Amino acid sequence: MSWRNDSAFILESFGLNENLFLFTLSMSTGIFLVILFFGILANTFKNTLVEDENLRLHKILALVGAILMILFGIFQILILGE
């Protein structure tokens, strides 16, 4: 079995074969938005992160990132579940 057949089987088993375009668009949009968001945050907090280690800021950024990833995943599931 080639990787195309495997990926098609995985998508079909989750019922995403019909919504392949929407699935691809939402995944690529989500990845782009997360990278853009963290790029903006990294540029904003560059001086704080470089000057000394601020563990509280690192924890806040990690928490914000985790929450955003979870919320966006739930959002994608709700869109694809229609």
UniProtKB/TrEMBL annotation:
Annotated transmembrane regions: 20-40, 60-79
Keywords: Membrane, Transmembrane, Transmembrane helix
Name of the molecule in the record: ATP synthase subunit A
Annotated PANTHER family: NICKEL/COBALT EFFLUX SYSTEM RCNA (PTHR40659), NICKEL_COBALT EFFLUX SYSTEM RCNA (PTHR40659:SF1)
GO terms for biological process, alphabetical: cobalt ion transport; response to cobalt ion; response to nickel cation
GO molecular function: monoatomic cation efflux transmembrane transporter activity; nickel cation transmembrane transporter activity
One GO CC annotation: plasma membrane
Family matches, as InterPro entries: NiCoT_RcnA
Native source species: Fusobacterium periodonticum D10
